[in-house]
Amino acid sequence: MITKNKDIISGIFLFLVAVFFYVGSFFIENLTGARIGPSFVPQLVSIVLAIISILIVADGIKHLKLNDSLEIEKEKKEKSGTAKTPLYKNAVLLSIINMWIYIGLMKPLGFMIMTFIYLFTQFIILSKQGKRQYLLSVIISLIVSVVTYYLFVNAFNLMLPAGILG
Amino acid sequence: MLGMLITGFTSVLTIKIMLLLVLGVGVGIIFGAIPGLSASMAVALVLPVTFGMEPIEGISMLIALYIGGVSGGLISAILLKIPGTPSSIATCFDGHPMAANGEAGKALGAGIVFSFLGGLFSIILLMFIAPSLAAITIKFGPYEYFSIAIFSLTMIASLSKGSLSKGLASGIVGMLIAIIGASPIDGTPRYTFGNYNMITGFNLLPVLIGLFAVAEILKSAEDNVDVSTGEIRDYTIKGFGFTMKEFVSQQWNALRSAVLGTGIGILPGIGGGTSNIIAYIVAKNQSKYPEKFGTGIIDGIVASETANNATIGGALVPLLTLGIPGDGVTAILLGALMIHDITPGPLLFTTQGEVVYGIFAALLISNVIMLIMEFFGMRLFVRLLTIPKKFLLSIIIALSAVGAFGVNNRIYDIWSLLIFGVLAYVMEKFDYPTAPVILGVILGPIAEVNLRRGLMLSQGSFMPFLTKPISITFLVLAVVSAYIVSRPKVKKVKVD
Fold first, then answer.
1. Are B31 and B39 contacting, i.e. CB atoms less than 8 angstroms apart?
2. Tell me, what DSSP letter sits at residue A127?
């Protein structure tokens, strides 16, 4: 289903984005009083985006009518073609959450600890079941996080968050 | 010019810069060779490392990465049948059949030598075109810049794969991203919601790394990267792998592909990803034996690999003379130059001529280093192809976080990394190209600044945009190029 309605869904979403930016442009202060002020381009761009998004939706509807049967066939094919050994079921979502936690806790816990945890978790998320290589993953995570931290802090003078180790 | 070039060479012929060039080319080749990693990613990731260097040191290293990144793709294209970068897609067509026929060494040799020659051709052309073009573009005012930015935006949208409306929508998404933050000229905050961090807007670097690198790991989480890379073919190579006679027979093919590659590079918005395919198709159509293409002949590799490296010099023409990037990598290079307080554009040639010629010298030297490294380091690069991608990609994310943090020493920029990574992933899910986003982020502000400057000069009149000859030419071209692609689909070129 998603394949079929991609254009319609994304078009509607873009239209909402356009509306958001257009409405938002009225809250931009015009301090200089120029006729073409800071809100001109945002307004122009959001109007153009609104027009394009309508075109995309229209395209999507046309496509839907034309290729109804064709798409279903293709979808079936795609499904049978992607029968790979699964990683974790929600590897994408897990990766996003993992990164979210990584960034969120970087300040309190520090770059080194969080990078170690992040890398190890990410390795596991991207591993096939039964091929997790725990020990190797721990070793690589440890080396990368420690080396990166000291390299950037000492050689490149970048003050990465030290956290509880600092 | 010769005098300037010598100055350029003396500025880069230090031990430190030579080491940086070797390192840059090597890392670039690795990123180019490994499918899923690209030259853009390499430049974006290494950029933070260059913050502490002298401008010429940092820029030289990034240039080396660019050359290596474009050249590395042929390795996996030939030995794995997976193009390492989009620049080497057409190299697979004949490269893999050759490898299957036991001619992998010859395919690699031809690919490497003609990559070198294509690059050399375009760098020399760049050195001749750029200074004289800069002498013209220095007279450009806000009207011309506005029109060129608009032209570039339509080109990008229309030439990106997929539909025109989706390409345009992506470009506009990029412009909207750039609108967030303080406005140009008067600095009025826009869409910041009173958030202190958002006044500076989104920094270019995290946006770029997010779009390239973070999106990549999400894609591989979906595609299941933890599979073996497949069989890597073994090869032997003697000399350059091909005979002098074969070399001579390819001279017209190579010259044509080099011209095509450079020309396509100069056009804003299209880079090596397009030029190699076009050169391949043209070579096939012009050939006396088109039916042999795809069965494993050297012609196909020569066309593809000459053209993609020739795109490098071409793409640097608008970057250096106008400050407008030709493709994704040059977009990042533009950001990199600005971080090093070098503003690309015609003024650069008069105020910082030594930097321009330093860049030329770095290009020439990197091209030679590429040739040597690919010949003698080939086995090492091939070995690296077997490193599991789950390790590589995850480590790249950690390094991206370092890079994003390094921009302003704040966690906020790492958040934008994640935001734009997810954005790019979702966009790809819905078949939107992501390259136009990047150019929208860069070209949007250029268009806006010049629009408003122009209107201030003309006291609010739009007329000069339409009456200045160069300005109107580019606006007309913008309309024409948009019209051409919006016509019923030109027959899709079969690439298999």
1. yes
2. S
Contact B262, B276 (CB under 8 A): no
- Taking contacts as CB-CB distances below 8 angstroms, the residues of chain B near A128 are 224, 226-227
For residue B65, which of B370, B274, B470, B495 has the smallest C-alpha distance? B370
Backbone torsions φ then ψ of B190, nearest 5 degrees: -125, 130
Report which secondary-structure segment, H or E, holds B189: strand B189-190
What pTM does this model have?
0.83
Tokens of B342: 């070098």
DSSP B232-294: PPP----TTSS-HHHHHHTHHHHHHHHHHHHHHHHSTT--HHHHHHHHHHHHHHH-S-GGGTT
| Terminal-to-terminal C-alpha distance of chain A | 52
B489 φ/ψ sector (left φ>0, alpha ψ -120 to 50, else beta): beta
Chain A residues with beta carbon closer than 8 angstroms to that of B421: 99
**Tokens 């070098």 belong to which residue?**
B342
Closest of B134, B67, B138, B41 to residue B361, by C-alpha: B67
**Is A115 in Cβ contact with B418 (below 8 Å)?**
no
Q: What is the SS3 string spanning B320-389?
A: HHHCCCCCHHHHHHHHHHHHCCCCCCHHHHHHCHHHHHHHHHHHHHHHHHHHHHHHHCHHHHHHHCCCCH
ipTM score for this prediction: 0.86
The answer to whether B433 and B166 are in contact (CB under 8 A) is yes
Residue that is written with structure tokens 């066309």 in the block: B303
Q: How does pLDDT run along chain B (496 residues), one tens digit per residue? A: 778 888 888 888 999 999 999 999 999 999 998 887 888 888 888 887 887 788 899 999 999 999 999 999 998 888 887 888 888 889 999 998 898 888 888 899 999 999 999 999 999 999 999 998 988 888 888 999 999 888 888 877 666 666 778 888 998 999 999 999 888 877 888 888 878 778 888 888 888 888 878 888 888 888 765 544 556 666 777 777 788 888 888 999 999 999 999 998 888 767 777 889 889 999 998 888 988 998 989 999 999 999 999 999 999 999 999 888 877 788 888 888 887 888 888 888 888 888 899 999 999 999 999 999 998 888 888 878 778 888 888 988 898 898 888 878 889 999 999 999 999 999 988 988 887 888 888 888 889 989 988 988 888 888 888 989 999 999 998 888 777 766 655 444 444 3
Task: Please compute Rg for chain B using Cα positions.
Answer: 22
Q: How many CB pairs under 8 A join A and B?
A: 178
Count the neighbouring beta carbons within 10 Å of the beta carbon of residue B192: 17
Which residue in this structure is represented by tokens 């760098």?
B123
Give the chain A residue nearest B227 (alpha carbons). Answer: A128
| Nearest to A121, CA basis, from A103, A107, A134, A106 | A134
Q: Which chain B residues touch A123 with a CB distance below 8 Å? A: 390-391, 394
Bridge-partner residues for B189, per DSSP? Answer: B182
Question: Contact B399/A148 with Cβ under 8 angstroms?
Answer: yes
Question: Do B254 and B114 contact (CB within 8 A), yes or no?
Answer: yes
Select from B146, B390, B429 the residue whose CB has the most chain A CBs within 10 Å, as the one to mutate to test that interface.
B390
Chain B residues in contact with A30 (beta carbon < 8 A): 188
Please indicate whether, in this complex, the C-beta atoms of B51 and A156 are within 8 angstroms of each other.
Answer: yes
